Amino acid sequence: MSLTEKQKKVFIWIVFILGVTGFQASARDGEAVKSYDLGKIQVSADGSKNEILHTPSGTFINVEAYKSPGVVQNIGDILKDNAIIDLRGASDLVPEPDGIYMRGFESRSFVTAIDGLQFQKSGGYWGRHFVDYALIPVSMIDTIEIIPGPHCSRYPGQAVGGVINVRTKEPKHHDTPEIGGDIAASYKSYETIDTKVNVNGGTGGFDFGLAWQDYSTDGYLRNNDADISSISGRFGYRLPSDGFISAMASFARKDTGWIVKNDPSQPDYDSDYPDVTATSTTAAQSPTREKKPQYFNLKYNQPTPVGLLNLTAYYYYDDQENHGKEASGRFRNGYPAGVYEWQTYGVKIQDEITLFKGNTLTVGYEHAHLEGDWDDKSGFNDIYVEDKWELMENLNLTLGARYENIDIHWSNWSSTSWALEEGKYKNPLIQKKYIKKSYSHISPKSFLTYDLDALAKGLRDTSVSLGVSELWSPRSGYCQV
């Protein structure tokens, strides 16, 4: 019996782990057991963080403490366990772009953010943003915040269904030099192998973390295999004023096969895979997709006499290279063979001011620029304000508003093929393939919460909330070029 390359990987890892464990065990066996009287010990350390914290305004998941039935390969494996999150991918073995729905809304109608800054790419404001959760390293994440509904003025009008905000780890102070890490490897059905190596540590105010991950699977459906590798690093410094500055970089490579037809009535039917008839892409086309995204993040947090100042900036580059034979000029989802590139950069400045006890005023400015192939551009400049009031011990009110100023290059080109020279203008009066339009609007937001703890013991940790906010988006411009 011969082993496949993936099975050899698993065997090597098992031998390595058993060897390390055996070495440690033999070292302990050779030592004499000693006992010491340490006297009276008082534990003063803080208790461990809650795995999941539910509040009226949102759910907070502590990623490091989170317990999952299986191995967490990406944050989608954590999100799918939440009641308001729905995984719509073909399977959970191969994470797909925009494979998460929130409260029934697809990715165009809720916001995914990293450190409070919206994560997206070009394709029109209401185009598919292709948020790929496989490319956000789990080891760099501190918490995941899930905010239901459109009542938070810190996020744009696209957040109709709510917000998924991923908070990366902050640098911590080390009293003595520290370095540590862990290695993990797992194997499960469909030749699925996941290997992770994490190293972290620091000295004084300096803190760092490094992570490498390699994931591969044959997938559940035909031609749905995947190979994903990523390397990430974060470096930070804890300032004497209790603020911090940190930077993170992540590089990944993701090679996947597109699902192909597996029809029992066709001569190329493969009984080893489930039946698939909803696609026209065939196994003979051998369609694959390669991506090499890059993500950079910079954070600065500083307490000041006028509040807690926070600055976040990011740069995101993504490309997509499609391979295989085409049928009628297109693959599944209409993508032709070729290379496509997108890049996005954004910045957010925010100040949280405690005016007096029971009141916090937050003001901020957010800017983003999105650019893709074919002069596909968009961007926005937003200003927001949020005022939180503790009206009574159990009654809290949040009032806010967001001003959005958005520029979008809408496509004015209608084509029956992917050759740009073949087609016609949707609006023949404007001889441009992309038309720039600008939109602006102010949306008020409000959220009232009453805690029921004081009414009865059975109502502990129970509350009722009422949100009244205006929904707005430039969706109408999509058809009016």
Q: What do these coordinates show?
A:
By secondary structure, the chain is mainly β. The protein has a single domain (5-28, 47-479), classed as Beta Barrel (Maltoporin, Chain A). Helix content is 6%, strand content 48%. The protein contains 2 helices and 24 strands. The strands form 4 sheets. Strands 9, 10, 11, 12, 13, 14, 15, 16, 17, 18, 19, 20, 23 and 24 form a 14-stranded antiparallel sheet that branches. The longest helix is centred in the N-terminal third of the chain and has 25 residues, at 5-29. It is globular. The relative contact order is 0.11.
Keywords:
24 strands; mainly beta; 481 residues; 6% helix; Maltoporin, Chain A; 14-stranded antiparallel beta sheet; 2 helices; single chain; 6-stranded mixed beta sheet
Total discrete domains: 1
- Radius of gyration, in angstroms, nearest whole number: 26 Å
CATH-scheme architecture: Beta Barrel
Structural class: mainly beta
Topology (elements, then pairings):
Elements: H1 5-29, E1 52-55, E2 58-62, H2 76-79, E3 85-87, E4 100-102, E5 111-114, E6 117-118, E7 141-148, E8 162-168, E9 174-188, E10 192-204, E11 206-217, E12 226-238, E13 244-257, E14 288-291, E15 294-304, E16 307-323, E17 338-356, E18 359-372, E19 376-392, E20 395-411, E21 413-414, E22 424-425, E23 434-451, E24 463-467
Parallel strand pairs: 5-8
Antiparallel strand pairs: 1-2, 2-7, 3-4, 5-6, 7-8, 9-10, 10-11, 11-12, 12-13, 13-14, 13-15, 14-16, 15-16, 16-17, 17-18, 18-19, 19-20, 20-23, 21-22, 23-24
